[in-house]
Design the sequence.
């Protein structure tokens, strides 16, 4: 099997290295990752400047490149140029910190897997539910076992979150849906020594009890969360109630 790995924590992330070493037990591993951290960069692609990709080191047969691009750029460069053939599976991670609920819209980790999915490949993103002392080896083993089970040959997108616990404290695996993720104090406004205003856009997570069946709830209770992701963002439930608005809009436009 041929694996493409990427992430948003950057090429030097310990989670990426452990993932690469673990996946090398199953097949050939190609790592194409951003040269610097891109966490929170979402699904951005670089359209207005050239991108560079450099081989950085060879280690136990694993091929590593760093690029000046985003996680999504990395996947495109890898799939359409760097790899000799398309990968069988794309894995993004292991991310330091969770990627749950609506945070997926900010996540570079998940976006790398999304980009692979848009290239018609099976892919998953994997994250650890802690920024402090992440248990990389647990998530790496989850990646390896899951990679051996995913049907190859057609697109599939999974978002995996692993509780930051030792094996003995992992309760099981749940297939979940995306939960709500709300923050308070979203914006901090301060003044620099020259009297000019500056901002930090980073809030604190609102602690509450997540709804049953959600990714947050699973991880909170010690389960590995696997969420199948669709990129059809259409809100089908709202379509019927929009019909009167459509009719009025058409009339007001004289159509
Ligand atoms: Mn990250």
Sequence:
């Amino acid at each position: 099997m041929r694996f493409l790995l990427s992430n948003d924590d950057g090429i030097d992330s310990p989670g990426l290295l452990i993932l690469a070493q673990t996946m090398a037990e199953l097949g050939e591993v190609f790592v194409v990752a951003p040269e610097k951290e891109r966490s929170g960069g979402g699904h951005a692609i670089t359209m207005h400047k050239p991108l560079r990709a450099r081989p950085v080191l060879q280690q136990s047969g694993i091929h590593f490149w760093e690029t000046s691009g985003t996680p999504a750029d990395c996947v495109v460069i890898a799939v359409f140029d760097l790899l000799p053939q398309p990968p069988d599976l794309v894995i993004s991670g292991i991310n330091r910190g969770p990627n749950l609920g609506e945070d997926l819209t900010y996540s570079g980790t998940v976006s790398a897997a999304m980009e692979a999915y848009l290239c018609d490949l099976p892919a998953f993103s994997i994250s650890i539910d802690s920024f402090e002392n992440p248990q990389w080896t647990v998530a790496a083993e989850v990646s390896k076992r899951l990679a051996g089970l995913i049907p190859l040959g057609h697109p599939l997108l999974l978002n995996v979150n692993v509780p930051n616990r030792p094996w003995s404290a992992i309760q099981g695996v749940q297939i979940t849906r995306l939960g709500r993720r709300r923050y308070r104090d979203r914006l901090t406004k301060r003044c620099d020594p020259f009297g000019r205003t500056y901002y930090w856009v980073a809030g604190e997570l609102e602690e509450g009890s997540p709804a049953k069946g959600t990714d947050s709830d699973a991880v909170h209770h010690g389960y590995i969360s696997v969420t199948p992701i669709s990129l059809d963002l259409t809100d089908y439930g709202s379509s019927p109630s929009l019909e009167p608005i459509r009719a009025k809009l058409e009339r007001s436009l004289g159509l």
Observations:
- The two ends are 56 Å apart (CA to CA).
- The mean pLDDT is 96.
